[in-house]
Amino acid sequence: MNKVLFVASECYPLVKTGGLADVIGALPLALAGDGVDARVLLPAYPEVCERLTEAEALPLPGGKVLGQDGRLLAATTEEGLKVWALDVPAFFARVGNPYVGPNGHDWPDNHLRFAALSRVAADIAAQGVGRWRPQLLHIHDWQAGLVPAYLSADEIDLPTLFTIHNIAFQGVFPAAEITRLGLPGRYYHRDLTEFWGQISFLKAGIAMSSKVSTVSPTYARELESAEFGWGLDGLIRHRQADMCGILNGIDAGVWDPANDPLIAAPYSAEKPAAKARNKEALQERLGLEKDSEAPLFCVVSRLTQQKGMDLLLENLPQLLWRGGQLAVLGSGEADLEAGFREAAFNNPGRVATVIGYNEPLSHLLQAGADAIVIPSRYEPCGLTQLYGLRYGTLPLVSRTGGLADTIIDANAAAVQAGTATGFQFAPVTPERLRHTLDRAFDLWGDRKAWRAARRAAMQTDFGWSASARLYRNLYRRMLKEARQKKMGETR
Questions:
Q1: CA separation (Å) from 108 to 37, 105, 171, 193, 406?
Q2: Residue 260 covered by a domain
Q3: H helices then E strands: how many in the chain?
Q4: Number of domains in the chain
C-alpha cells in the first residue's frame, strides 16, 4: 500500500474557507479504497483543536519548527480521515479566518506560519511519525509550496506532487525573508523561488516538485496562457511534460439530496417531486415570495469580480423583469456585498442576501433553488456547480476551467438529445450573461425540457472514484520513476 502525506492549510470538516478544504477532506478517503494509505498534515487552528478533543499529542519530528515550540495532534475524524494537526501556538492559535487578521489584512507573518507547515512536512518525510513514513508527498497550493525546497535543502529524495487549486493566490513575500525561513540564500533564484524581486511559495512548488497537477484539464491548458497564468505561464509551459489536470470530485455522502439532513425534504433523480418542498422552505427561510412559478436562481460564492458577481448585479434587473427570484449566500468585496444588500432591500420578496458563509444554508440553497449562477472570469475547477448537478439545480456557468469541463450546455441539440445539464456562456461579458439568462428562462417555460435537464444533471457522476483512480495511477507512476532514477544513480 502506497503511503502518501497530504499537506494543506485546511480540511473539511475541521476547517474550511473554500473548496480546497472539501478536496482535502474527501480525496484521501476515496484513495483508501484504491490501495493508498493517506494522512493529512494541516495547521492546528483553534477550531481544529476544538474538533480534535481526543487527539494524541506527539513531539515534532524536528523538535522545534522555525525556532518555535510545538507538537503534533494525531487523530482520526469521524469520517475515518487520519490527520496530524500542527499545533504551534505562536503561529496558529488565532481565532477567525486562517489567513486574515481582524483588520481584514493578511497576517503579517503568514510566510513564517506556512513555512512552518512545509518544514514539518519535510521533517515527517525524513523521520516519519512512529512507524509511518511517507513514500510520496501531495502538497496543495502556496501554503505548502516550500515543501520541495526543504526536501532539497535537506537532501531528502522523495517524490512530490504539487496541486494548484488557484494560481491567483501565490504566497508572495519580501526576498529578505529567505533566511528567516531556514533556507539557504541560494534558493532565492529565478529558477526556484524568486518572483519579480520577491519570494513566491507557489512558484517554489511549481518549479521544484516532481510533478504538477491542477484541478481540471481545461484549467491546466489555460494556465499556459498569459491571460490565466498570473505571471507564471512561462514556468507552466516549461513544466508542461510534468503537468496534468485532474477534475475535483465531490463527497457524494455529504452532498446527497436523498439523505441530506440539512434540507427540508429528501428527493432523488427518480423521485424529484420533493425538491418543490425545499423551494418552499428556502423561500420561507429567506423571506422570498412563495411562488412555485418563479424560477429561483441562487449564488453560493465569494462575492468578487473573479467570480463575476458584478456581471450578475448588472443583469439583476433583467432577471427580475423576466419573473425570477435570486438568493445570495457569500462574502467578499465590500462594494459587491453592498450591491447585493441593496438589491435585497429594494426588491423585498424577490431578492434575498445573506452575507457570510453558512454550511447548512448552502445545502438548502442547492436543494431549493432551480438554478445556480456561476459567471466566473476564471474558475480552476469549481465545486458548487457539481453540487448543483447533484441536487438538480441547473448550473449557469461561464465557459472556463472546470466549469467548461463539467456542464453540458442546453443548446438545441443537447436539449433534443436529453443530455443538457445546464447553461454555458462565453465570452464573460454582461451581454453574454444576459443572453444566457434569457435562455434559462426560455427553457423554464418548457417544463418538460427543464425536468429532463434536471434529471440528466442529477444522473451525472462527479464523485471522487474516477479522479481518485487517476491520482492513484499518477502516484504509482511517480514512485516507479523515482525507483528507476535511484537505480540509475546506483549503477
A1: 36, 8, 12, 19, 38
A2: no
A3: 19, 18
A4: 2
Whether residues 450 and 479 share a domain: the answer is no
Predicted confidence (pLDDT) at residue 489 exceeds the cutoff of 90: no
DSSP state of 398: E
Q: pLDDT per residue over 435-478, tens digit each?
A: 999 999 999 999 999 999 999 999 999 999 999 999 999 999 99
Instruction: Please report, for the domain that includes residue 291, its CATH number.
Output: 3.40.50.2000
Rounded-to-integer distance, Cα 211 and Cα 243, Å:
6
The length of the chain, given as a count of residues: 491
321, 190: one domain = no
Q: How far is CA 237 from CA 177, 213, 221, 229, 385, in A?
A: 28, 13, 9, 10, 29
Identify whether residues 220 and 342 lie together within a single domain.
no
368 and 236, same domain (yes or no):
no
DSSP string covering 71-85, please?
EEEEEE-TT--EEEE
Domain that holds residue 96: 2-249+465-490
Convert the pLDDT of each residue in 313-346 to its tens digit: 999 999 999 999 999 999 999 999 999 999 999 9
- DSSP conformation class of 55: P
- Tell whether pTM > 0.85: yes
Q: Is 458 exposed, middle or buried (0-12, 13-18, 19+ CB in 10 A)?
A: buried
Q: Are residues 486 and 413 in the same domain?
A: no
- Residue 69's alpha-carbon distances to 133, 161, 448, in angstroms, are 22, 28, 63
Cell numbers 529558477 label which residue?
191
The tens digit of pLDDT for each residue in 87-111 reads 999 999 999 899 999 998 999 999 9
Q: Which of 152, 154, 225 is nearest to 193 (CA)?
A: 152
**Residue at 254 is within a domain:** no
246: number of Cβ within 10 Å: 22
pLDDT of residue 490: 62
Residue 158, Cβ density class (10 Å: 0-12 exposed, 13-18 middle, ≥19 buried): buried
Residue 181 — pLDDT band, cuts 50, 70, 90?
Answer: very high
Set of cell numbers at residue 417: 438529445
* pLDDT in the model for residue 35: 87
Residue 343 shares a structural domain with residue 485: no
**176 and 198 share one domain:** yes
Please enumerate, as own/partner, the contacts of 52-59 that have beta carbons within 8 Å and a separation of 24 or more: 52/14, 52/83, 52/85, 55/85, 57/87, 58/84, 58/129, 58/130
Task: Indicate whether 413 belongs to any domain.
Answer: yes
Does the annotation flag 211 for ligand binding?
Answer: no
The CA distance from 33 to 352, in Å, is 42
Task: State which amino acid sits at residue 179.
Answer: T
- Nearest Cα to 28, choosing from 152, 148, 134? 134
Contacts of 34 (CB under 8 A, 6+ apart): 468, 469, 472
Judge if 365 and 294 occupy the same domain: yes
Residue 172 within a domain: yes
On the question of pLDDT at 122 being above 70, the answer is yes
